[in-house]
Amino acid sequence: MLLRHDISKDAELLVLRHENAVRRRQLARSVRCELGHHPPGTEPPSFTEAPSGT
User: Fold this and answer.
1) pLDDT category of residue 14 using cuts at 50, 70 and 90
2) Which residues contact 44 (CB under 8 A, 6 or more apart)?
3) Which of 24, 48, 26, 45 is nearest to 36 (CA)?
4) What is the CA radius of gyration of the chain?
């Protein structure tokens, strides 16, 4: 049988792992937004060329 100390230590480790996983997902999401992530096979719009016909 595990002692209370061992059980609380295991619970704390579980919580810390969960917090780390959440932060990793949040960081990955913010990096994708900053880099202008687009789904594979699609090209981002190009804003470097002036519209023609002016």
Assistant:
1) very high
2) 36, 38
3) 45
4) 23
Quote the mean pLDDT of the chain. 77
d(CA 21, CA 28): 11
The neighbour count for residue 2, using CB atoms within 10 Å, is 9
Count of all residues that appear for the chain in the document: 54
Q: Report residue 45 as tokens.
A: 């719009």
Whole-angstrom distance, CA of residue 4 vs CA of residue 2: 7
Residue 11 structure tokens: 């619970």
Report CA-CA distances (Å) from 7 to 23, 26, 37, 47.
25, 29, 42, 57
